[in-house]
Write a structure and sequence with these properties.
heterotrimer; A alpha+beta (115); B mainly alpha (277); C mainly alpha (322); B: 277 residues; mainly alpha; two-stranded antiparallel ribbon; 62% helix; 1% strand; C: 322 residues; Ferritin; 2% strand
């Protein structure tokens, strides 16, 4: 067990996640102290969702969560050079389609007046 | 029950005096049980074993009092009196709750030197809750449609409460020797009163004849079977036939503990029941 | 939570500089970020006091929970006191995570409370003898609390900010709950109005004290440290003036008075001029010598001690089953 989160009377820290509706994702709410997962789950809704609707709840022991250290977190930042994977990188498409449509319509017009 | 024709509205119920009386008598039992146990639950505020549980436990009491309010409002619609008056201005002998729900949480007063018993809180809540589950299931078939409808609404919240008590019962029963001893003592104490829960009071025959709820025998059997299964699964010795208290709560006989509770509950309202609060 | 090893190639001075630069540009500190001991200690002091005040604050209102005069009010005040306990839970969790590296837990906080080492807000040491007191607590004490808590919403310590956002959202309901009780009494019978006036009079000095002593030009080292660390942004007196500007007119609009005949608004200075409460008495109260301090500490301590077997039991179940 991680020493930082050890509680002397041995209650553990559980992180609580909840899902608002069947179509929403789980979001983190807060943490609580509990001796085991069953008690943690039994107390979770009333501590953090007294007014909100709630479709499902998870509790996760904090010690079982593995994450980035504070020193590593800044490395999550990316260069802003990835327009090729976003819609804004393809802003020219609409104009090009329009161009083709107009060309086609122009040709049609000529064909009609020619016949 | 079942062969009685369905009574769809309050107005229709009022047209048959025998039916209206039976319905009123039953509603007082339902309302008073939830109201008084919710009050006992509210006395625990700030005193529960763990802060997170204090918060969770309070919701159960609120929900239960919310259910009581729904029953009192049905009485109000029947013209029996204003819901707030029914809850706060009746004398103890007009209350029809079982003795089990009026017992104090332990020695002392909620505000001065409380020495409350968490094992008793868990066992009482769960044993009463299991009976309430059986009762709500029966009420789904009630001849009085509005009662069947509110019972269905309450059922979801109530099942959530049962999940909560289940966790506590299982864990206390399978932990330390001290917890086990306290739990067994609490079961013994609760069991002395529990045999009154399924009683339907002086007007029981009419209540059943009107198709409002199943008979005492059926309610008792279903509740005992359910409870026995749960106790045995938790590794607890089955206490057998439940006892009945000396006073008959469903007949308006109560312990001084109810009178005291009612004095507290109505202390402010009685200053001037005609005023707005 | 587990993470990889911390970098240790920076000196303490460099860490301190980076920390101050970060909060100066509005950056937020997380529980596992490096922070100066002084910052940690200031936060622990502030947040554990705030958290334990919520827990102790449940007790004066709890007295009125069963007695609330209508079914709706009984439900509403039950929900409100539950929220207070819930706020205590959030804040204590934040404090506990700060205390963890020092090897301290919630149990230590409780023991500090019982030993009067951990203080709680002056208002929760006071008596609440009538239903109108429950109304005034909801209206004015919660009103005062909203003002101090809103100031800290932008605190540099991210976990505290997250807890405060949850709390402030619920405090709006609490204030409405209090206003509703108070308006009902104010619009009611002579007896009800008198009950309310007496409660306002009784709570007035405590409400002034709630924000702490005025600075009189010099702010305490505590306050300046908290402001340097961007834990708080306004002084005691600034907060008190916000409170007076918001609530005094409302008290007057209802036709009630406060026990201060010379109180008046100074247009030029744009502030209320009021008689100082007895700050010596304030010190005594927060030390745990208020009218209801011993009684409420006893409630808390007795219930905590007598339910120890429950916590031991469920912990033991956890060990059996995993």
């Amino acid at each position: 067990m991680n020493k930082e989160t050890e509680v002397r009377d041995d209650f553990f820290i559980y992180e609580v996640f909840s899902q608002r509706s069947v179509s929403s994702s789980f979001v983190h709410q807060f943490s609580l102290l509990a001796p085991n997962k069953e008690v943690a789950l039994a107390m979770a809704r009333e501590n953090f969702l007294r007014r909100e609707t709630c479709f499902n709840i998870w509790v996760v022991k904090r010690d079982d969560i593995y994450g980035l250290s504070p020193e590593e977190r800044p490395f999550l930042e990316r260069l802003d050079n990835k327009s090729y994977r976003e819609t804004r990188g393809y802003g020219d498409l609409q104009a090009r389609w329009r161009h083709h449509r107009e060309q086609y319509e122009e040709k049609q017009k000529h064909a009609e007046s020619g016949s | 029950m079942g062969d009685f024709s369905q009574v769809e509205t309050t107005e229709a119920a009022k047209q048959n005096p025998e039916y209206a009386q039976a319905l009123t008598d039953l509603l007082f039992q339902l309302a008073d049980d939830d109201f008084i146990l919710a009050y006992r639950g509210s006395e625990w505020l700030g005193l529960a074993p763990h802060i997170e549980e204090d918060v969770a436990f309070s919701s159960m009491s609120q929900d239960m009092m919310g259910h009581a309010v729904m029953f009192y409002e049905m009485l109000e619609q029947l013209g029996v009196g204003k819901a707030d008056d029914l809850a706060q201005l009746r004398e103890a002998d007009a209350f029809r709750n079982g003795i089990l729900v009026e017992r104090k949480n332990g020695e002392g007063d909620y505000n001065t030197d409380p020495h409350y018993d968490w094992a008793y809180a868990i066992v009482r809540s769960y044993v009463y809750g299991l009976y309430k589950q059986v009762r709500l299931e029966s009420l789904l078939q009630s001849s009085y449609t509005p009662l069947a409808l509110v019972s269905r609404k309450m059922m979801t919240e109530h099942r959530y409460h049962l999940m909560h008590w289940q966790v506590w019962l299982t864990q206390l029963a399978n932990s330390t020797d001290e917890a086990r001893k306290r739990l067994e003592a609490a079961i013994e104490k609760v069991w002395k009163d529990a045999g009154e829960l399924y009683q339907l009071g002086a007007n029981a025959d009419a209540i059943v004849r009107c198709g409002l709820i199943a008979g005492e025998g059926e309610l008792k059997q279903k509740w005992l079977t359910l409870t026995q299964g749960i106790f045995e699964k938790a590794g607890l010795v089955w206490a057998g036939e439940p006892g009945v208290p000396e006073q008959r709560g469903r007949h308006g006989q109560h312990t001084p503990e109810l009178a005291q509770a009612l004095a507290t509950l109505s202390e402010v309202y009685r200053i001037d029941p005609a005023a707005g609060w | 939570m587990q993470t990889q090893m911390e970098r240790s190639d920076l000196t303490e001075n460099e860490k301190m500089e980076a920390f101050l630069a970060k909060i100066d540009r509005g950056g937020k500190i997380e529980a596992d970020d490096w922070m100066p001991d002084d910052y940690r200690n200031q936060l622990i002091k502030l947040i554990s006091m705030h958290g334990i005040s919520e827990i102790m604050g449940a007790l004066p209102e709890k007295e009125w929970v069963p007695k609330a005069p209508t079914l709706r009010r009984k439900l509403a005040i039950m929900a409100k006191v539950q929220d207070e306990m819930g706020h205590g839970q959030l804040l204590l969790r934040v404090a506990e995570d700060l205390l963890a590296p020092l090897g301290k837990t919630r149990e230590d906080l409780m023991n500090d409370l019982f030993a009067k080492r951990l203080k709680f807000h002056n208002v929760f040491h006071m008596e609440a003898p009538t239903w109108a007191d429950a109304g005034v607590i909801g209206w004015l004490v919660d009103g005062a609390a909203i003002i101090t808590q809103s100031m800290s919403l932008d605190t540099s310590y991210a976990p505290y900010a997250r807890a405060l956002h949850r709390i402030c959202a619920e405090e709006k309901f609490h204030a409405q709950h209090g206003e509703s009780i108070v308006l009902e009494l104010a619009e009611g019978t002579e007896e009800q109005r008198q009950m309310l006036q007496e409660a306002i009079t009784r709570w007035w000095p405590s409400l002034l004290m709630f924000f702490g002593p005025p600075e009189n030009g010099t702010i305490t080292s505590n306050q300046s440290a908290n402001m340097r660390y961007k834990i708080r942004t306004q002084t005691n007196e600034e907060l008190r003036q916000v409170f007076l500007k918001k609530y005094l007119p409302r008290i007057f609009h209802l036709g009630f008075t406060v026990p201060d005949e010379t109180i008046h608004f100074d247009e030029e200075k744009d502030q209320w001029v009021y008689q100082q409460p007895d700050w010596e008495q304030f010190k005594q109260i927060v030390k745990g010598n208020g009218p209801r301090s011993a009684h409420r500490l006893n409630l808390r301590e007795t219930s905590y001690e007598e339910t120890k077997w429950v916590r031991d039991a469920i912990m033991s179940y956890g060990r059996h089953v995993g």
